[in-house]
Structure formats: structure tokens, C-alpha cells
């Protein structure tokens, strides 16, 4: 028997600076399943290993060959299984605290190039104007073509204050763009809040971190104090939130759901890959000895009219929250179809401070829907007119990733257009691609405006 520290991950992929989404589970003892060794295949492996050692044009160390073989085994499974060397494993653990070094861009791989899924707010990449859908073709003077995603991410990491030049291909730009970024220690503020209007609160979650649930509780309490009365409505903004700690997702959902309501469940091949997580302290505190941070929330929060904003950059933990609130009919989901990252990764530490990240299960909403490669379809489809053209052409989703895990229950599809309502966009669609995207939560935020209009309409109907 082998003692393994298990770390379940809930995220899109790799982030330059490693803001990989994850949750930490308890220590679990797991027996290695005894299976017959594939003798013929191992003999072939041994022969290839020997040939490379004896005949390759340059000497190759045993360590490099074994590491590359492990890399190949895992990367050949799906986009999220991977080998973590000592550096990557360390940065993965540090990233859960919401502080890490890098550029602040979430990336995937497409046709041998690094594709930007989304920049993280308040980071060097965000302030430099890096956009979702940008294709990175060069890092300094090195072409990306032929690199693995891990190698590309490693090159984008570095000492805070050091510079890196990205060469980017962007739709509608006649020639590649050259952007110089200064690496920084990325400190992601998980929860932001304000009174959007008197009586109506706005809470944005940028990433699910260790203290996201606590920060949400504080934000809701502060909004109630600022308003000097219970809120009439609340907008929960999960747009471009790549995910994070599963405990954070359960905590956020629990703030709005009845006690012990099912938030999410998982299905996998092993017993410890099957979980049912409910809106109860033991599931969002996970036995860390903390006081229940939700116990002092105002009672009205459980019933305040709620709109959740999502888009194609909302993934994993964000989708868990949106799916739970949608299935329990606790909130109206508004925006565009989410990313569709609904698989569970478990980090299994190895020797020498390395680990493997292995896909072990799928996530399901309380109603039994698989999130994987499908995502959450909003109740009301509202596109941001300033990004609609870019999103439709360049937005990367789980279903677009090579070797992605199948849904398991439902047919995969592209962004859904059959939601109950389709909110018309302004008449300037022809200029949408040229319009600078509005900052989330600003007065020019079109989707937020529509969410507030819906809340006011709900308020009127309640009054009647």
C-alpha cells in the first residue's frame, strides 16, 4: 500500500505563472491495483530505449528519456493530464494562495501555437491588452511551433521584473503584434464588490482561491451595511473566471442555497473518485478547523433575487456554481455558454518532489448534467456587443481541445442559441470587433446593465 497525497484540480489548463485551479483533499491511502504487465509492449519500450541510448546522434541521459516517456503517457490521454516536475509542482501549490509569479495569462494549445484563453484581471498581460483568442507565435526570439505547452509556460515564467517579448497573431490585424511584458508577482484579488445602484449589489469572483468563500461572506455583509437595508437584488459575476479550489465553489454555492442542498457530485472508476458535495460546512471547510464563515450571513441572502453572469471564459469551479444555482432554480444564469471544463484532476505526488496530474472523474450538476465538453447554457442569452465577434471566432472551449474527454452523458455541442430568451444587442454590430471591451462592472458593461434590468423587472413582478 502506498500513501498518496491527493489534490483534485478544477481548471482549464495551464496559466503562465501557474494559476492552475485546484482543491486540496485529505490524505488518502490507496492500494495499487495489481494488473498483468503488458510484456510485449514493455519489451518494445525497452528496445526503443536501448536504441536511443546507443544510436541517437547525441548522448541522452536516462533521466531525460524516462521523464519524456512519462510526459508522453500523460499528455496522450487528455489535455489536462500532465507530469509536473519539481518546479511545476511547487508553483502549483503556491498558486492556490492567490499569489504567483508570471504574466497572468491563461493559455491552451492549438495547431502547435499557444492560444490565449483569457488574461487574468489586474496582471501585466491584462494591462498590456492581451486578448482572448490571441495566438502566441514567438517567445522572445524562439518560435513556439514545436514546443509543448509545458515548455512554453516555463519560458513565460521568470523572475519578477524581467522582460519577455511576445509575438502575437490577432484576428483583423494585418501583421503580427510585438508586445513587451514585464513579469510580476501576480496577486489575484479573488472577490470584488460594490453597490451597482442603490439597493442592487455587484459581486465579482475572479478566481476561486483558499479564502474566496470567506471573502464573499464579508462582501455580502459589507454591501448590506452600505445599502443600510437588505439588497433588492444581487449580480454574481463569474465571467472569465477560470475556476479554482473546489471548496471555494462549494462555499460560494452554499451562501445562496438551502443547507445540505446538493452542490455537485463526481463519477469516476474508483471509490475515492466518487463524491457528493452538499451545502454544509464539512464540505466547504474540509476539516481545517475554521469557524463557519457563512453562519453570520443575513438570512435574506438565501432568497435575494440573484442573476449570475457567465461567458466562454467561465470554467470548472465557475461552472459548478452556475450549474448548482441553475438546477436549484436559485438564480437566473445570464450571458453566453461556458467553457465546459467538467473533469476532475488528481495530483499524485511522486519521488523527488515531482507529481502526476491525472484525470480521475467527471463533474455533474445536482440535476445530473455533465459539464464536460458542454458547459452551462444560460437561461437568458446575452452577448457583449463589444466582444461578440471575437468570441464567436476565437473563443476557445473544452470541446475544441485535442483529445478532450467526452461528455459521458450528453452530446457535445457548440455554443447554444436556444435559451429561453435572446437579448438583442445594440445596432452597432458591424463595429463590435473594433469596440474596446468594457471593463466588467463598469457603467458601460452591457451584460451587467441587462442583469440589473432583469432584477428590477423581477422586483416589480414580486410587488404585484
Automatic annotation (TrEMBL):
Domain spans labelled PDZ: 89-157
Biased composition (Basic and acidic residues): 406-419
Lineage, broadest ranks: Bacteria, Pseudomonadati, Pseudomonadota, Betaproteobacteria, Nitrosomonadales
Gene name of the record: ctpA
Membrane spanning stretches: none
Gene Ontology CC: outer membrane-bounded periplasmic space
Keywords: Hydrolase, Protease, Serine protease
GO molecular function annotations of the record: endopeptidase activity; serine-type peptidase activity
Family matches, as InterPro entries: ClpP/crotonase-like_dom_sf, CtpA/B_N, PDZ, PDZ_sf, Peptidase_S41A, Tail-specific_protease
Source organism of the structure: Ferrigenium kumadai
NCBIfam families per record: prc
Family matches, as Pfam families: CtpB_N-like, PDZ_2, Peptidase_S41
GO BP terms in the entry: proteolysis; signal transduction
Coiled coil: none
Family membership noted in the UniProt record: Belongs to the peptidase S41A family.
Name the UniProt record assigns to this protein: Peptidase S41
Record region (Disordered): 406-441
Amino acid at each position: 500500500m502506498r500513501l498518496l497525497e491527493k489534490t483534485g484540480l478544477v481548471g482549464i489548463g495551464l496559466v503562465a505563472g501557474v494559476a492552475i485551479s485546484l482543491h486540496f483533499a485529505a490524505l488518502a491511502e490507496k492500494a495499487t491495483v495489481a494488473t498483468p504487465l503488458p510484456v510485449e509492449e514493455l519489451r518494445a519500450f525497452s528496445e526503443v530505449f536501448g536504441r536511443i541510448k546507443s544510436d541517437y546522434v547525441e548522448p541522452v541521459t536516462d533521466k531525460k528519456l524516462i521523464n519524456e516517456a512519462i510526459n508522453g503517457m500523460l499528455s496522450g490521454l487528455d489535455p489536462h493530464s500532465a507530469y509536473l516536475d519539481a518546479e511545476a509542482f511547487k508553483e502549483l501549490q503556491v498558486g492556490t494562495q492567490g499569489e504567483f509569479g508570471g504574466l497572468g495569462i491563461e493559455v491552451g494549445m492549438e495547431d502547435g501555437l499557444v492560444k490565449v484563453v483569457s488574461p487574468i484581471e489586474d496582471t501585466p498581460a491584462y494591462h498590456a491588452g492581451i486578448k482572448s483568442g490571441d495566438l502566441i507565435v514567438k517567445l522572445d526570439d524562439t518560435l513556439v511551433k514545436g514546443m509543448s505547452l509545458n515548455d512554453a509556460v516555463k519560458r513565460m515564467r521568470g523572475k519578477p521584473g524581467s522582460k519577455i517579448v511576445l509575438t502575437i497573431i490577432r484576428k483583423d490585424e494585418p501583421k503580427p503584434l510585438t508586445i513587451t511584458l514585464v513579469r510580476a508577482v501576480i496577486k489575484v484579488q479573488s472577490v470584488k464588490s460594490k453597490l451597482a445602484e442603490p439597493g442592487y449589489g455587484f459581486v465579482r469572483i475572479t478566481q476561486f482561491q483558499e479564502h474566496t468563500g470567506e471573502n464573499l461572506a464579508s462582501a455580502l455583509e459589507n454591501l448590506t451595511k452600505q445599502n443600510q437595508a437588505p439588497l433588492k437584488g444581487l449580480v454574481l459575476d463569474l465571467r472569465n473566471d477560470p475556476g479554482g479550489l473546489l471548496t471555494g465553489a462549494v462555499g460560494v454555492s452554499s451562501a445562496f442555497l438551502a443547507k445540505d442542498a446538493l452542490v455537485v457530485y463526481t463519477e469516476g472508476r474508483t471509490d475515492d473518485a466518487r463524491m457528493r458535495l452538499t451545502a454544509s460546512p464539512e464540505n466547504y471547510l474540509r476539516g481545517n478547523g475554521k469557524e463557519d464563515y457563512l453562519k453570520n450571513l443575513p438570512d435574506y441572502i438565501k432568497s435575494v433575487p440573484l442573476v449570475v453572469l457567465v461567458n466562454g471564459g467561465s470554467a470548472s469551479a465557475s461552472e459548478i456554481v452556475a450549474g448548482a444555482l441553475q438546477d436549484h432554480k436559485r438564480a437566473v444564469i445570464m450571458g453566453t455558454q461556458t467553457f465546459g471544463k467538467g473533469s476532475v484532476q488528481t495530483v499524485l505526488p511522486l519521488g523527488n518532489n515531482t507529481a502526476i496530474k491525472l484525470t480521475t472523474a467527471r463533474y455533474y450538476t445536482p440535476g445530473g448534467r455533465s459539464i464536460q465538453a458542454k458547459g452551462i447554457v444560460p437561461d437568458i442569452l446575452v452577448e457583449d456587443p463589444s466582444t461578440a465577434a471575437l468570441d464567436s471566432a476565437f473563443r476557445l472551449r473544452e470541446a475544441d481541445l485535442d483529445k478532450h474527454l467526452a461528455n459521458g452523458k450528453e452530446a457535445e455541442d457548440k455554443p447554444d442559441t436556444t435559451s429561453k430568451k435572446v437579448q438583442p444587442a445594440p445596432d452597432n454590430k458591424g463595429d463590435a470587433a473594433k469596440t474596446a471591451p468594457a471593463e466588467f462592472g463598469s457603467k458601460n458593461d452591457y451584460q451587467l446593465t441587462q442583469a440589473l434590468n432583469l432584477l428590477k423587472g423581477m422586483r416589480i413582478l414580486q410587488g404585484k
